[in-house]
Amino acid sequence: KNFYYISYVSLKDFLKKRSPVYSNDIHIKAAMEWLSLAQKQNKDGGVSALYSLFEGWAPSYVETTGYVIPTFFNYAEFSKKYFYKEKSIQMADFELRNQLPSGAFPGGEKKAIPIVFNTGQVIFGLCKTYEETYDEKYRIAAEKAADWLLSVMDEDGCWRKNEYLNHVHTYNARTAWSLLYTHKISENGAYQEAAENNIDWALTQQLENGWLQNNGFYPYQEPLVHTIAYSIRGILEAAIYLRKKKYLEAAVKAATPIMHAQRTDGSLPGSFNKEWKSSVKWSCLTGNSQMSIIWQKLFMATKNQKFLDAAKKSNAYMKSVQNLNSSNAGVKGGIPGSFPIYGWYAPFCFPN
């Protein structure tokens, strides 16, 4: 009994161990190499959803491949390694093969069931691929997906049908942002109008302290930083695209309490309740990085140095939880869902 207790304690200490930190370029390159490896796993052009320490590589995931596409295009430009553009196009073609006749895109394992959020995230990849290639098939596919999103939106701007777990999600503000991207490449005013309607609905969910209701994956769940950040990002991008002050104010209102909750090491608690308190000690790493992007954009919009400082602290922490020296290719350069890795967001997994 004592032996197993000591082993368990040692394992917990091991799982909490952080890694050496290098320059940003080195960490970005390692992450891109991990994503490239994830794309090769299923030989279908898509990116494996995750690497599990127990089960290995998962099937390619339609939703997240959608917003990995812009990452690859951007990195090609940043690094001058233009073969990453070819990888992006392979992903976009994977998406075209998975588009449903309605124009929507499916969820995870249920390939025929259209999901609002997933459809929105694929639109980002299709729009970016069109901008990079000017190939009409990607614009047409993006517009077809956007048309489906409009067809299932309720009059008040909320999506209640074709939702994950049949539950309303405020984080579909990020889906509204995808409609704005479709508006950018098509100039179809209906997409902008629908996006504004959804953001306006999302703001009806915001409390005085900045909290956004209906923001977890599940009803009554303490929402992850991951889904909270989805909502803030959608509202913020709408503020930038539409130049709407009330949207910017709403984003600041939600992002500021999270900044105040940042720990001295740069991490954030994994989830928050409506008082901006957390019931967990582990960190949702995906959410940490999302908040870093949001804080950087808020710094650019407001010139408040505190936002930039928080983003830099978050990035420094994120580098420390990325293992660049592992002999396991599924681990090296990847970033776990949680830290320690046994937190309940993607436990013992490295999501794409």
Q: How large is the radius of gyration?
A: 20 Å
The biggest sheet amounts to: 3 strands, antiparallel
Q: Mean pLDDT, as a whole number?
A: 94
Oligomer, anyone? Answer: single chain
Order of helices and strands: HHEEHHHHHHHHEHHEE
Unreliable stretches: 1-10
Shape: globular
Structural class: mainly alpha
Level of helix content? 55-70%
| Strand order in the sheet with the most strands | 2-1-5
Termini Cα gap? 38 Å
Bin the strand percentage.
under 5%
DSSP helical segment count: 12
Could you explain the architecture of this structure?
- It is built from 12 helices and 5 strands.
- Helix content is 56%, strand content 3%.
- With 352 residues, the chain is mainly alpha-helical.
- The longest helix has 18 residues, at 62-79.
- It has helices spanning 2-15, 24-40, 62-79, 83-98, 116-133, 136-151, 173-186, 189-204, 225-242, 245-260, 285-302, 305-320, and strands spanning 50-52, 56-57, 283-284, 338-339, 349-351.
- The protein is globular, with a radius of gyration of 20 Å.
- The strands form 2 sheets. The protein has a 3-stranded antiparallel beta sheet, with no helix packed on it.
Observed structural traits:
mainly alpha; disordered N terminus; three-stranded antiparallel sheet; 12 helices
Quick recap:
With about 350 residues, the protein is mainly α. About 55% of the residues lie in helices and about 5% in strands. The two termini are about 40 Å apart.
Outline the fold blueprint:
Layout: H1 2-15, H2 24-40, E1 50-52, E2 56-57, H3 62-79, H4 83-98, H5 116-133, H6 136-151, H7 173-186, H8 189-204, H9 225-242, H10 245-260, E3 283-284, H11 285-302, H12 305-320, E4 338-339, E5 349-351
Antiparallel strand pairs: 1-2, 1-5, 3-4
